[in-house]
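REVIEWER CHECKLIST
Item 1: Sequence provided? yes
Item 2: Single chain? yes
Item 3: Sequence as submitted:
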Amino acid sequence: MSIQGTCTPQFEEVRAEFERNFAERGEVGASVHVTLDGEPVVDLWGGVADPVTGQEWSEETIVHVFSCTKAATALCAHILASRGVLDLNAPVAKYWPEYGVEGKENTLVRHVLSHQAGLPALTDWLPAGAFYDWELVTSALAAQKPLWQPGTQHGYHGLTFGFLVGEIVRRVTGLSLGQFFEKEVSGPLGLDFWMGLPEDLEPHVAHTIPVDPTQPGILLPSLFITAMTQPESLPGLMLLNNGGYMAPGESDSRAAHAAEMGAVGGISNARGLAGLYRPLALGGSYNGVRLVEESQLPQMSDVAVSGFDAVVGVPSRFGLGFQKQVDNTYLPPNDAEGLLMPEEAFGHTGMGGSLGFADPRARLSFGYAMNKQGPGLALNSRGQSLVDAVYSSLGYRQTGGGSWFA
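Item 4: Structure as written out by the authors:
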C-alpha cells in the first residue's frame, strides 16, 4: 500500500502504525494529521477512496466523519459563550422560547451540551427524509416531553444533539448552524470541513463502507443489539426514528451531504479535523484567528458528566460538547471500545472510528478519518494505534488501563 504525504522523523512511529492499519487491521482508505505547536508533523493519506472504481484516496479526499461533527457544533456554542452572547448556565428557553414546555422550562444550555437534556430521540414517528427538514425536527424537539428530568442523568444524544445546539446557535445569531460555522470557523481557518456540502465537491467524497455484521469476528456493541431487539428502547428510538437517515447508504446520499446536521453530518478529512482543534490546543487562537478566549477552554475540556450512559449503555465522559478519555477495555469485547488519551485532551469520535481532538498541555491537535467503519461508536484499534503512536513519540507513558500521561 502506497502511503502519501509527510511525517517528521520524531513521528515515524505514526507512519509505521498507519501502514500497519492497511496491512494488518483492514484499513481501506484513510488520512491522519497531527500538529504540534501549530505546525504539521504528520500529514499522511493512502488507500482507496472507492473500491468499486479503484479511485485512490488523494490529498483532496473528504469523507463523512459522523459524530466528529458534534465538536464543530459545540465549538460554535462556545464561540458565542466566549463573546458573552450565550450564557451556558441559562435556560434554553431564554433563547428558544418554544422549547420551554413539557417539563423543559429549566433545561439549561449546558444540559444540552453535556447530553443531559433528556431528548436523545423523538417518540413521535418521523416521516421519510425528516432529518433534512430543520424546522420539522426542531419543532418536534421543542414540543416533546423529555425522556428523563433534564440534568439528572446523561445519555448520548447521538442524532438530536446537532438540532438542539444548532437551533440555539441560530436563535442567537440569525444564521443557520452551517452558515455560522463557515463564517466563523472553517472559512477563517481554511478548513476542509462542511456542515452542508456544496454539490461541486461531491466527486471528492469517499463513500462510507459500513460494517457487515455477518462477517466472522464482528461483534456489535450492546447499543445496536438493543436497538434491533427493542425498537421502543432509547437506542431503538435513536437509531430507527430518524426519517430513514440511518438506513444503509442513506448517509452518503446527496440529500444527506447537503443537509446541515450538526450531530452527524460533517464532511471532512484528517487535516480538517486536526485544523479544527489546532486553535484550541494553542489557547484558543491560531494564525490570527481567535475562536475563543483562553478562559473559555476549561468549560470545553473539563469533565461535566461521567458514568453510566443511559443511551449507549456503557460508561462515557463528556465536557460541554466534547468527549473525554474513557477506558472501557475491561468491558466485554463488543463494548470495549473507548478513547485512551491524556486527561487534558478533549475531542470527539465518529461512528466507525474517526477522531479529532486537542491536547492543550501538549499543544497538539489530531485528526483521523477513514471510509471503512469499525463496529462501534468510539475509537477502534486503527485510530487508537495512531493516538498511541503519537504519545509514544512524545515520550509519554501509559497507565495500567492504557491512558496516557506525561
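Item 5: Key structural point noted by reviewer: The two ends are 33 Å apart (CA to CA).
Item 6: Recommendation: ____
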